[in-house]
Every structure is written in structure tokens, then in C-alpha cells.
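FORM 7B - TANDEM STRUCTURE REPORT

SECTION 1: FIRST PROTEIN
SEQUENCE AND C-ALPHA CELLS:
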Amino acid sequence: MYYGTARKPDEKILKASFMVPIMNSATSLYAAIGMFAFLGHIAHTLDIPVEKVSTSGLDLAFVAYPGMINMLAGSNFWAVIFFLILVTLGIDSVFGFFDHILNYMTDAFPIIKEKMRNEVFVGLFTLFSFLCSLIFVLESGLYTFDLFDSYAANIALLTCLLCELALIPWVFGMDNLSILLKERTGEVMPKFVIFFVKFIIPIYITAIYILSWVKEFQKDSQPEEEMKWPYGFFWLGRVLFIVPMLTIVFGYFKRIETPDIYDLVEAQFGMRLDNKK
């Protein structure tokens, strides 16, 4: 979704759809093998359980990884490469996020383009994002980041994914999507992809979604000394994903007038799809 607006109109989709997840998973696996081998070495050296040294989030990026790099030959070179990776990943993510939000806002509220130039709108949104991000550089910024890192995504993103898995394959229809794919790029949607998107992936994501809710509220029964934060902070974190999810309900009852999807398809592709389901 983030990078969809950057692709060329006739650019092949299926190849990227297969290669991006494969490369992403392969990179994660490669990094995990090296990282957890290092954590196992530390646990063995210190004679402590490995879960005591296993880290995530900021600790993983700025404590565990630098510690491992320091043990390599030419550690200064690898340190520069590693932190360049972090910088480029961050910049790339920001560009994707901005592109997605800006295009969404101008599509949903066309009046923005009528009232101000694009440069002004981008500048105002950048300033707004900058001011919001200041909470992460205060004295409590580390804890604020940890709270967002633990709660802002996960269940909320799974909710978005479930909505997509309901709307695209079942409401809009995989057959219609295949027709558009064939018309624009000349590709044919494989049958196994249609089957997986309509049946296997929704079952799998639903199971993860339910288990995520169960795991989240199991924290309430933990002994106080084992809790990561004070009890009230759990609900402060839950607000970060519950409130955005409630906007789905709000959007259902308070709808923004937008063109019908079939009208948009007809305008862009010059064909009228069947909207009877």
C-alpha cells in the first residue's frame, strides 16, 4: 500500500509480490541466525539462561548488535555499515509513510489541492509530524518509544489486514482483480494465489489475531513483579490500538463521500466490472 503510488502503471506485480516477501524473510532468517548464535554464545560464556540475554527493540539494535559487531574482525567497518543500514531503513520508511498519508489525504479531501499548493501541504504535514515526534526525545522518550513499539502496531495492523482480506477477495472479488491485472500488466493471477488469499491466509491471520488478544489480556493476571510496566500503562498502551480500530466503526456510520470503486475502475481502465456479489 505504501509504495503502490510509486510503481509504473504497467509494471509487473506478481514477480514483486513473490520476491519481496521471500527476500524479506530470507534477510530476517539470515540476521536471526547470526544474532541468536551470538546471544547463545553470551549465555554460555556467562552461564545464564539464554532468555536472560535475549533482547528486542532498541536493546537489540543498539546493544546486542553492536556487541556482536565489536567481536568481528574489522569491527569499525562493520559498525559504519550497520548504522548506515539503520539510517537508510529509517529514511526509506519515512518516505513510504509520507507518500501514503499525503496521497490518502489529497484523495479523501480534494479541497486540500484547491486551497493550497502541494509544497505548502507537505511542509505543514512535515511540521506536524516533527512536533508529534518530539515526545520521543524527552527524558521519558525511551519509555514512550517502547510503549508505541509494543502497542501501536500488532493488533491494529492485524485488524487492517483482516479488513483487506474481507474487502478485496470477497467484496470486490479476486476475479475482478484478476481482470484488472491482466488488462494493466498482462499477467494472469495464479489459481493457487486466489485460493490462498480467499481461504488459507484469512484462517491463518484470524488465528493469530485471536491469540494476540488472548496474549494481551493474559498480562493482567501476571504477578506485579513480572510486569513490564505498572498496570495502568497497559491500558495506556492499549489505547494506542483500540482508538484507531474504533475509527472503523466511526467511518461506517459517518461516511465520506467518495467515488464508487467501479466508477473509478471504469475511469482508469475504460471497462465496467460486474459489482453483483
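SECTION 2: SECOND PROTEIN
SEQUENCE AND C-ALPHA CELLS:
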Amino acid sequence: MKYTIKIDNHDYLVEIHDLNTRPVIVSVNGTTLEVWPGEEARKSTPESVSTSSMPANTPQSGLLPLYPTPAQYAIVSKKVVAPIPGVIIEILVKPGEEVVYEQGLFVIEAMKMKNIIRSTRDGKVTQIFVTQGQSVNHSQNLLEFEG
């Protein structure tokens, strides 16, 4: 299935492969992403998986979690970047705070949907590059971890 999606005057070509496999493989403008359509479907470790800019529904919270893609994080990254353009509506951590893998870091609103950006690793937050209410672009740095 191929779709063209327009976000903030930018067109994105999205191709969704077999919906019956896990992870679902999606291509966005030629970049391949893994999408895990539910928390219970994720069986990966922090070293092997990262986020997708395609949200997976989490009915318990009403928010949509975002995970990094293996292509973006073959090696666990020190930085967390915005997987989609949007507005930071909540910052869930502070500099100096210890976080764990998949802990919520930010809530971003994009296309009238609230999305949780989760940690790609365990670590200590050294710097946050954004503020609440700030608009962010795709791949913009949001946070940095120590070492």
C-alpha cells in the first residue's frame, strides 16, 4: 500500500508492506522503518531496536508511542531526535535524571494526535534541547544522554 501524506507543507511517500507480519515494515521517503503495532508485540532489546516515526496504538494510555528505527539506531545513540514534526506539549524528564529503556521522555502532538517519545536506552539525561510548547522538525535533537 502506498500513500502520500502531507505534514506542514511537506509531502511524505509512505509504503506499508505486509500488515500481517511483525514488525510491519514501512518505507517513508525511502527510509525503511519497523513498526510494532502494540506493546505486547515487542520482543526486542534496547540494542536491537529503535523508534519509528509511524505510531503504534496503545489503548491503555490513549497516547501513541514512538520507537526509534534500527536503521537510525544500529548503535544505541546518545541523542533522541524528533521522529515526526510536531509540538512538544510535555517534557517528562529533567537533566540529571536517570531513565530506563522505553521510559516516556516527551509528549509530542502531531496532526491532532498525542504521541509519546520513549527512551531508546538506559542512561542519564545530560541536556534537553527543547521547551514545552516548542514546534520541532523531523530529526531535530530533543535530548542527549551522558556518554
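SECTION 3: OBSERVATIONS ON SECOND PROTEIN
Residues 39-65, 68-75 have pLDDT under 50 and may be disordered.
The chain has no helices and 13 strands.

SECTION 4: SIGNATURE
Preparer initials: ____
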